[in-house]
Automatic annotation (TrEMBL), chain A:
InterPro entries: AAA+_ATPase, ABC_transporter-like_ATP-bd, ABC_transporter-like_CS, ABC_transpr_LolD-like, MacB-like_ATP-bd, P-loop_NTPase. This is ABC transporter ATP-binding protein. GO terms for cellular component: membrane protein complex; plasma membrane. The keyword Transport applies. Keywords: ATP-binding, Nucleotide-binding, Transport. PANTHER family: ABC TRANSPORTER RELATED (PTHR24220:SF685), IMPORT ATP-BINDING PROTEIN (PTHR24220). It comes from Cellulomonas rhizosphaerae. Pfam families: ABC_tran. Gene3D superfamilies: P-loop containing nucleotide triphosphate hydrolases. Residues 11-246 form the ABC transporter domain. The keyword Transport applies. The lineage of its organism: Bacteria, Bacillati, Actinomycetota, Actinomycetes, Micrococcales. GO terms for molecular function: ATP binding; ATP hydrolysis activity; transmembrane transporter activity.
TrEMBL record, chain B:
This is PadR family transcriptional regulator. It comes from Cellulomonas rhizosphaerae. InterPro entries: Tscrpt_reg_PadR_C (IPR018309), Tscrpt_reg_PadR_N (IPR005149), WH-like_DNA-bd_sf (IPR036388), WH_DNA-bd_sf (IPR036390). Residues 89-168 form the Transcription regulator PadR C-terminal domain. It holds the Pfam family PadR.
Automatic annotation (TrEMBL), chain C:
It comes from Cellulomonas rhizosphaerae. It is a multi-pass membrane protein. The lineage of its organism: Bacteria, Bacillati, Actinomycetota, Actinomycetes, Micrococcales. This is ABC transporter permease. The chain crosses the membrane at residues 275-303, 329-355, 375-395, 422-442, 448-475, 496-517, 760-788, 809-835, 855-874. Pfam families: FtsX (PF02687). InterPro entries: ABC3_permease_C, Membrane_comp_ABC_pdt.
Amino acid sequence: MTGRQLGPVLLTARGVTRVHGEGATAVRALDGVDLDIRLGELVAVMGASGSGKSTLLNIVGGLDTPTTGSVTLAGDELSALDARARARLRRRAVGYVFQDFNLIPALTAAENVSLPRELDGIGGRTARAEARAALREVGVDHLADRFPDEMSGGQQQRVAIARALVGPRRLVLADEPTGALDSTTGEDVMRVLRARIDAGAAGLLVTHEPRFAAWADRTVFLRDGVVVDGTGRRLEPWSLQAAGSI
Amino acid sequence: MSVRQGMLALLAQEPMHAYQLRQQFEARTGGTWPLNMGQVSTTLDRLVRDGLVEPVDGTEPPAYALTDAGRAAMREWWSTPVVRSAPQRDELSIKLALAVTAPDVDVTAIVQAQRTETMRALTDLTRLKADLPAAGPASDDLAWSLVLDNLVFAAEAEVRWLDHVEARVARAATQPIRPAVAADEPTRVTR
Amino acid sequence: MRRWFVAMRATARIARRDAVRSRGRTALVVAMVGLPVLVASGGAVLVQSSIPTSERQALEQLGDSTQAWIVHPYDSPVVQDAYGLASKVVEGVDASGPGSAETAIRASLPAGDDLVAKYLTPGAVSSDAGVVMVGVKSLSPADLPRAARADLVEGVWPTTAGQAFLTTSTASELGVGVGATISVATRTGDSPSVLEVVGVGAPQGAEPGAAGITVPLGSIPVANTPVGWFVVGKVPVSWDVVTAMNQSGLVVTSRAVVLEPPAVPAVGSPGGKPWSVATVGLVLAAATIGLLEAVLIVGPAFAIGARRSIRQLALIAAIGADTVTLRRIVLLGGVVIGSVAAIAGAALGIVGAVAVRAIAVARGSTGFPDPRIPWLIVVAMALVGFFVAVAAAWLPSRRSGRIDVVAALGRRRAEASPSRRVPIFGVLAVTIGVAAAVVGAVTSRSALLVMGVVALQIGVVAASGGLVTLVGRLAPRVGVAGRVALRDASRQRGRTAPAVAAVIAAVAGVVATGTYLHSKEAFGESQYVPTAGAGTVLVASSMVDEWGDQVHMAGDAEVRRGAESVRQAVDGVGVAVVRAAQPVNGGWLASLRPPDQECPADSSARDPRCNNLESLQISFNPVRDGQYSPTELVDEGDTVEAIGLPGADAAAAALRAGKVLVDPRALWPDGTAHLQINDGSIPLPAPVVVPAAAVKRLGQFGTVLPTAVADRLGLEVDTVGAVVTTAAAPTDAELARARSAVFGRAEVFVERGYSDDTPIYLWVLVAAALAIGLGATGLAMALAAAEFRPDLATLAAIGASPRMRRRVAAAQSAVVVVLGVGLGTLTGLALGWVLVLAARADEPDLAVAIPGPQVLAIAVGIPLLAVGGSFLLTRSHLPVTRRLAT
């Protein structure tokens, strides 16, 4: 993993501020957040509840709009796009993975994965092939025709990851994807996510558990909507032999 | 203490000589705690002196085996939880405890810097874990990954504690500070 | 284009699978949409099946053994359909010469067939046990067996005059069998013919209960011309023969043609009176209201499981669906469910109706002669059902396009923040709607009326959401249960408002219809002018029979005899004769009015001086050349008393004091009347001034004179009938006996007062409102209960008593039902007022009458039942459950 080349910048956020409410009851969910994500990079965002992590995720994917600041995703400035265009962006450029209830219960795994493509008008064999390929990459293509209620939590999250990166999508936005899973399964899911990103994608991971954030290349800490610190340095492999003091 | 118990555990499986003991210990704990031969010999002598281990006659180099008392001690070790009540001296705890009472120290900066470092360490540990195969490893790999997990969880616990410290300090800063205490009274942290 | 299609397919897949998965909701909507479709199509099938086909009607006409049936309705050439049931005169062709119909028939009759003339005489057939009024058929004895269209069961066919053949039902009604004697009274007033029953049988084809009596020619007097001819024999009557006979104005029902109809264009029957604009408007308005309400009532069913589906919709939005796609998913759900419900409802309705008919036929009923399916109506019903389902899904689909995706994903309760625009739009719509409806009603513009009604309904429904929020402001003033319910209702507007709208719709519809019907009934009652006191029997001694001839009882003595037999038949108390007067040399008697009471030439219809309310249920005519109804009654007081209208005693006393009774407007200030004989002479003779009193019109009689005054004026007096007073109103059987006693010579009428079935319909409407109102409220309650469990658990954790759950449930249903019933009643009254206004185009004096008991039952009863039901039916314990919403 060392010396790995990072690709072009996929996401740029500058001075993103999100205020809810007005006047005395105004709440600043985010305050002047800057963020860059490049292809091949997994960035973790950590913070207490109410620190603005989920708001950041919603804004970056176009589900929410910042009060001030700009977000550029796949070359498009989000504030210049209307709701339909942002929806199109969510079909083609970015995918979400939530903590739970990621899949539509009425569709099979393959249909869930191909849904963004079908909503975009790509159907038939192309979409099906893409779906199967995506499922294979996360190791659950044998579940392609199963329904979500026939799968375990970890399997569902894998399908969600497959869907988030199906087709031309390159950026996955994950909101506590391991929150509803036990420790070992969570680790499996993080492995899969890491592998997919290493294979040519990028990710923004929101979590409150440091050992999962550790799978990222760097971690950004949010407190009350403001970035307080982050592990920005590029890392060298750490040798246990050299530590000694533990 | 744990080196003693570790050797007893190894000898419980089969009699070994000193060099074997060292090699096995390092292998089974993934090389996390390297031993030198001097430590091994000293520990063996102590075990013989305490009657838990006895040399096996006629072996060259000399091999050691458990006595009955040694086996009893082993069983007790497996079944007795590691006592936690006496905390280890922790450099970080001491550092922060002193920092919050020192008048012109920016505790928040210390916390944030430490957190960044611990996260970095955590990330490194996770990379090592990632290199291991995910499921059903051979027993050596399992031992190694358990030790690794212990380190990961410990680092995570530290990060969490640091978050907590940051929040406590932030809240304490908004509350009225008690008047400065007299110099000869024991120092107390204001709440 | 292909892209759109693929996206639609994915959308449709989600909608379809969702419909299958949420079985409860799907079943509910299918039931709510499908059941009415089922009932409507099944009903249509049964109704249509109860109408015999043209073929069956024609074949019934022919019985089993005749070839054709010929009637002669016109003198000019006609065209007819294949069944002889519809015919019409050929325009522009002159009437053919007067030759006899029979000649014309025989000219075209196929060789080998015979003609049998059938005569029909109305008669009263009586035996010791009973009386039957029926048309007596007379046929030539030789052909009687073939042309009687019956099968002999007992006895033999009549062969000579003086014998009779009865159907089994007539025989049993008369209580006679073979060998008994019956007497038949016919119109000419001759003594009744006495006949011997020699045969009893079952009619072919027709209902087994059909009445009938067939006698050989000569048994009773018959008219000059037969009512029609049968063709009997072996040779069928072909279509060519039929068209030949058509040239002479004959209409033929021929078995051969009926069994193999030629391809001829249908003959339209002359249409009835075209509908007035007001009626069209009324029907359209009613249909629109009905459809709108169906949509509003089905709507809440789509809200079931809203929370779960909101989460799913938010997820789909996060995956990349835009607002349009989200709306389509919900709408397509309506399409899927609607089509299933419509098709299933229609199919099951048809199957059910056919099964019902089969069972009825197996049990011997003949109410459904042929299985007939009115496909157009069935398809229309299915389409209506489908439309209702889709329209009901339309509003939730719009709402789903506005969900707060971020909030829904964050697992907070996400409701699209209630827009303030909608309630304002609602109030505007109500105002515009009422204005438009009133204008449209008053100016008879049905389009405007319908649009106004629709706008009114939509407006009320749109404003209901805002009202729910408004009502929520009351929360701080009520107890815990009320506060919880009010807050929940106003925050979960998406669930509460549709239920309120449904209740509004149902109640408004019922109250509007009830008000309209009751107003019409009240008007009818107010317009009804009784001819006599209730229960009084009037006998008019002359009448016009079916042949247009005037028949009568001649002379005072005969009238009294007839009246006495009527009195005996109805068990009456007393008899008073009716004597009418007219000037000897023609003309009429006018009672002149004071100048200020004259009806001005440029009068309006509402001027009280100009209207004349007459009741013409029976009219007394003397026997003279020409026909007229005299308006002068000659009486010493007994007749007026016997007639028994209000004020009869005072009127009789005035008559006995020698005064004349006239219209109040013709009474001069000095208590006299100015009577003038208007016989066309110039100048008119001077009026005779006599003391007078006022009286309201007695049937056709506007002036009542004591005999002395009539003599003084030189009037001729005839006995034209009688009045029979009774202690109790005669039964139908007594009336039948009275009629048969004077059959063919006089007319008998019983004043029964104003009767109407409207009250029954009103209570049926109340029941419907109850059902729908309670159903909608129950539905809202079910929705609330499912989503409310976490809150109830919180209440339990806080320490609320188990009874709290009941109180909360009662409060929740109270919010929905009180708002709904209150607004619905007000809207309904307004709508009813508009409908009455519209009907004023036909009847200008129609006034609005509110059916008090029914409206009260709805306004008070439904809330009581709903709240009470919720209270009693809710389990009285609080759930122990996860407090987090799933």
